[in-house]
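Per your request, structure below.
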């Protein structure tokens, strides 16, 4: 096994050392910092981040990966109401605490290292390659403090200087988490309220003293034994604010002190016994008159939760990428040594095809994730600067506002694709690794079976793959309907470029875009149905208003709901190819990677488009008939 998971990975090092725009991240991260505090230059900061990642790569290779199997076997348990972690797991986190890495992206004014969040996300990939249970818990020492900092940016009690956040209402909690004394968790899911958060029944009510008290049960809470809990609860009556409108967000401490007495504020009901992620505690939590602090305003809970989830979904994408890297390396190394029929199996045609597919998937997913991580972070940091230290020059202000709007649109577009791709590809590559190892992969002598068990939850938590698909479909649909002329212009350009572009790489990416637009057009035509017939006599400039009126979500969107995941897979291939093409344009030696990936993507997208065009009519008709029958019976 390697002794450094950073230095042994040429593709990861390419991105960190040559492709990530550290200058832009440095400018945004150090904006407004005093001369004596800030890192002297972008190049100095880049060297510092590389050193941090090298040390983390060494730690994961030497201290995490060797005990991953032990952590899996020791698992977690609940004893007298307290979570008992694996001893090996606890030892790893003592080491990370000594390294003082939990505060990587936290501003130095709040006790952190003031590194870009990009460094933390790369660290997450390294950690996940070693063990996903460790990576998951590692994230709750950093992710929850970063969520609190994001909420503090909107809080009038926070203090700013030169656009920098100097103090927040949550400083004590942030300090405890980034120093490793405590950690946090995100508390959303309930029995009967998983993906459908509108069904949340946990309540929060004001008591006679004006304090908020929570009552209810939450389930499947990762690292739910954390002291600092971000809890979504219902504060408004259903009649006044139905569904998501009645939800608010709270900071709840699992325990607190009154004098010398420790008061249990939240009870841990159970620890789940899972097929994977066994070192990471997954808890059910019981709130009984539990004291909480309202974050933001009443009724803002769902919107605040989305801010928190967007960063978490990038983290899950990185988690999946770490699993993919581990699965590919295991399969590659085994295939290079296993001899059958007179040659190593990596020279057998089918296995060679598997390995090339796995290698390209890892490289492509990494390119997509790193691009998305950069644009997401820059949009958030520059938005903070616009809010608290906008340029005085009107032209600079206008340019920065346009830049932030563009980056936010791109970040919104890429985030669900990153979560989808990292999750689904982690499962697929883990499955391929087990197949390549054959019988050996089905035993505990190798970790192929552990990788597959660990990967299987990724398409489920932090928003299922199907939820990500629906989000991506909805955004694409609304963009097309709001400006049909612009959409049709993109369709025309892609069709011209797939034939007329000078460079083969440009023709290849244009062809992928035609699959995307054809799939979207097919779905939109089926959704719009009668509405499109009515608009046929109207100029395209009038389509938007006509098409966006009087939708029946239960009936009109059925074709989109059926094919959303197929469209999402096309979108993933298109955006991954775009990322690889942009890499190749900056670094011509990456051209071969882009072309080989796009060749495989072209085949996949053609297949998905064919299914979208030719499948589903009978199924939707049967569902509609069944619904009509049930409604008639109920009436």
């Amino acid at each position: 096994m390697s002794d450094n998971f950073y230095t042994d990975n040429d593709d990861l090092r390419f991105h960190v050392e040559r492709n990530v725009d550290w200058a832009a991240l440095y400018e945004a991260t150090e904006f407004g910092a005093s001369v004596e505090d800030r890192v002297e230059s972008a190049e100095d900061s880049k060297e510092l981040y590389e050193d941090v990642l090298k040390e983390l790569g060494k730690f994961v290779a030497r201290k995490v990966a060797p005990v991953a199997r032990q952590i899996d076997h020791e698992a977690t348990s609940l004893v007298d109401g307290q979570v008992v972690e694996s001893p090996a797991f606890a030892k790893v986190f003592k080491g990370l605490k000594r390294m003082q890495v939990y505060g990587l992206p936290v501003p130095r004014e709040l006790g952190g290292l003031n590194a870009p969040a990009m460094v933390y996300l790369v660290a997450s990939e390294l950690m996940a390659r070693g063990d996903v249970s460790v990576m998951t818990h590692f994230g709750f020492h950093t992710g929850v403090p970063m969520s609190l900092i994001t909420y503090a940016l909107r809080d009038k009690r926070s203090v700013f200087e030169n656009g920098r956040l100097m103090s927040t209402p949550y400083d004590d909690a942030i300090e405890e988490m980034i120093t490793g004394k405590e950690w946090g968790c995100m508390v959303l899911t309930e029995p009967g309220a998983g993906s459908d958060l509108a069904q949340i029944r946990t309540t929060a009510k004001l008591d006679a003293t004006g304090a908020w008290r929570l009552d209810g049960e939450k389930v499947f809470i990762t690292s739910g034994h954390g002291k600092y809990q971000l809890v979504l609860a219902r504060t408004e009556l259903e009649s006044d604010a139905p569904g998501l409108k009645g939800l608010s967000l709270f900071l709840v401490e699992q325990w607190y002190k009154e004098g010398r007495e420790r008061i249990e504020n939240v009870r841990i009901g159970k620890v789940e016994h899972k097929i994977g992620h066994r070192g990471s505690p997954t808890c059910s939590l019981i709130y009984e008159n539990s004291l909480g602090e309202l974050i933001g305003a009443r009724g803002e809970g769902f919107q605040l939760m989305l801010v928190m989830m967007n960063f978490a979904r990038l983290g899950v994408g990185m988690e999946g990428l770490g699993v993919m890297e581990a699965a590919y390396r295991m399969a590659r190394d085994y295939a290079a040594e296993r001899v059958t029929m007179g040659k190593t199996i990596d020279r057998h045609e089918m296995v060679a095809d598997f390995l090339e597919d796995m290698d390209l998937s890892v490289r492509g997913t990494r390119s997509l994730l790193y691009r998305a991580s950069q644009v997401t972070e820059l949009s958030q940091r520059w938005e903070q600067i616009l809010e608290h230290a906008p340029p005085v020059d009107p032209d600079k202000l206008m340019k920065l506002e346009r830049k932030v709007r563009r980056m936010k649109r791109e970040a919104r577009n890429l985030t669900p694709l990153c979560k989808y791709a990292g999750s689904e590809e982690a499962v697929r590559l883990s499955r391929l690794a087990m197949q390549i190892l054959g019988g050996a992969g089905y035993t505990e002598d190798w970790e192929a079976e552990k990788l597959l068990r660990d990967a299987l939850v990724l398409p489920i938590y932090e928003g299922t793959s199907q939820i990500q698909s629906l989000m991506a479909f909805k955004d694409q649909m609304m963009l097309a309907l709001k400006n049909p002329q612009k959409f049709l212009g993109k369709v025309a350009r892609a069709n011209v470029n797939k034939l007329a572009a000078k460079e083969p790489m440009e023709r290849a990416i244009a062809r992928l875009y035609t699959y995307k637009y054809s799939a979207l057009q097919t779905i939109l035509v089926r959704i719009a149905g009668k509405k499109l017939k009515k608009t046929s006599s109207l100029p395209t400039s009038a389509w938007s208003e006509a098409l966006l009126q009087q939708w029946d979500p239960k009936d009109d969107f059925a074709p989109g709901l059926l094919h959303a995941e197929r469209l999402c897979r096309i979108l993933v291939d298109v955006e991954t190819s775009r990322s690889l093409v942009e890499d190749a344009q900056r670094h011509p030696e990456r051209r071969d990677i882009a072309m080989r990936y796009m060749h495989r993507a072209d085949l996949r997208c053609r297949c998905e488009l064919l299914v979208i065009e030719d499948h589903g009519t009978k199924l939707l008709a049967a569902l509609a008939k069944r619904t009509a029958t049930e409604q008639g019976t109920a009436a």
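The first strand starts at residue 77 and ends at 79.

Regards,
D.
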